[in-house]
Amino acid sequence: MILKGIRGATSADENSRDEILSKTKELLLEMAEKNAFEKDNIASIFLTMTEDLDAEFPAVSARQIGWTDVPLLCAREIMVKDSLKKCIRVLIHYNTDKQFKAEHVYLHNAKTLRPDLNNKD
User: Which residues of the chain have a pLDDT value below 50?
Assistant: First the structure.
């Protein structure tokens, strides 16, 4: 068994509970689909948000999609001058027996964080 890290990020349009949950849920589901992993093999998920988002914990989205046994941790993203605002970042640690190249997912304004990964669209 090997541990893989799968990265992703998205952005919210506003600081509201519904927006944070909706955008985080969309990101988590897209990461799961693109990487074809099973929730039982998720070791843990680390989620961060920029300081301008504080209406809800993004981890609630994972619980809402049924990832109730996954260890989750939320944190504040460090502030860097001129960095992307209203950003939600995710790192999924995933156990697997398969060799595969992780497909990282960047949605909405977060596509600017990794333009090298979004030229496929």
Answer: 121
Residue 17 annotated in active site: no
Q: For 70-98, what is each residue's pLDDT tens digit?
A: 999 999 999 999 999 999 999 999 999 88
CATH assignment of 2-115? 3.30.1330.40
* Cα-trace Rg, the chain: 14
- Do residues 84 and 111 lie in contact, with contact meaning Cβ atoms separated by under 8 Å? no
The active-site residue, picked from 19, 77, 87, 94, is 77
Which segments within the chain are labelled E, that is strand? 2-11, 42-49, 72-76, 87-96, 105-106
Q: Has 89 been annotated as catalytic?
A: yes
Residues forming a β-bridge with 64: none
According to the model, what pLDDT value does residue 115 have?
A: 82
Q: Is 87 a catalytic residue?
A: no
Residue 77 appears among annotated catalytic residues:
yes
